[in-house]
Specification:
With about 120 residues, this protein is mainly β. The chain has no helices and eleven strands. The strands form two sheets. Strands 2, 4, 5, 6, 9, 10 and 11 form a seven-stranded mixed sheet that branches.
Length: about 120
């Protein structure tokens, strides 16, 4: 069964850091474009970061540029997103998604698989 499992969310104080994980089963993540998205209450889902196949290229939304790092562990078939200097505006449900074809974009279109989401709350 093809599945993406996102985890690592929680309650974090402003200024803190968090590392989210996206574990894949049923397919090899390194063969796919992997992205992280987030959806804050009352807002549309937005792209946060993307990693191209083979980790050859990455991109970040302006909202996390300089604070976020996307990485991949092929042995674990897992992709990570670390965000530092967290702000209340980072509060959202974070989703990972994978697509076999196409370029690395932060658009929601074209993704074949989605994880179930993990909630990040940034609050004091």
């Amino acid at each position: 069964e093809v599945q993406l499992q996102a985890s690592g969310g929680g309650l974090v104080q402003p200024g803190g850091s968090l590392r989210l994980s996206c574990a894949a089963s049923g397919f090899t993540l390194d063969d796919y474009v992997i992205s992280w998205f987030r959806q804050a209450p009352g807002k549309e889902r937005e792209g946060v970061s993307c990693m191209y196949r083979g980790a050859r290229w990455t991109t970040y939304a302006d909202s996390v540029k300089g604070r976020g790092t996307i990485s991949r562990d092929n042995a674990q078939n897992t992709v990570y997103l670390q965000i530092n200097s967290l702000e209340p505006e980072d509060t959202a449900v974070y989703y990972c998604a994978a697509k076999m074809s196409g370029w690395c974009t932060l658009s929601r279109k074209g993704y074949d698989f989605w994880g179930q989401g993990t909630l990040v709350t940034v609050s004091s």
